[in-house]
Specification:
alpha/beta; 39% helix; 8 strands; 10 helices; six-stranded parallel beta sheet
Length: 250
Amino acid sequence: MVATLHVPIDWYSPAVFGVSRPKTYIHCVSAQQHRSCPPCSNLLPPIENGVEVVRARHAKRRFTLALGRICPEKGFHDALDAAGIAGVPLLLAGQVFRYAAHEKYFYDEIVPRLDELRRFLGPVGLKRKRRLLSGARCLLAPSVVPETSSLVAMEALACGTPVIAFPSGALADVVEHGKTGFIVRNRKEMADAIVASHEIDPEVCRRAARERFPVERMVKRYLEMYERLASGDAPLTGAEDGRAAAVVSR
């Protein structure tokens, strides 16, 4: 059995990293998440997430975009404030799940910040998400917890849209500062980066996604892992782990 870890490592029980059940393994979705794991014998090398590069082109518009689950750890209130400081429209899309903390965050921190320029769209489907990502001047990712991979940041780059993010977890690895977006430390720096986002070449973003996060490579590595384990071969762990992780990160 292989379990993929998708959330920050400190969200898991320590028991996850000491499972005694035979032939039970765990692995991570980024090198950064893997590095944050405690030493354990059942940890396989990471397999980084991949995304499809969108071929359709949409004319860039003036709005910024924030996209994801509407919850405290995503920090979208900072995105709304940064867009307000920069004086540009922001569209916020995502699901408010029916958890008390999520709904409280939405009504206390998001709703008061909405106006004619800063709008909440709710959940969006795949086609509309891609249109939004392709047309946005930039994507804002102000996460306040360590992102394990940030698929939305990868999807934005695949659509030719730069990402402006806080250095939370894997976001610092996904975004190449000054090349495919900007890593910032606060709302003021995020606002400045929004203004400067036109300096980022959309084709450079697409090329980075194509070379660094191809979905085909992700699928290939999962199948290789499953086949190796199913055949009874010893999995890559321990001493081999660091070398394999380095290969994955490249």
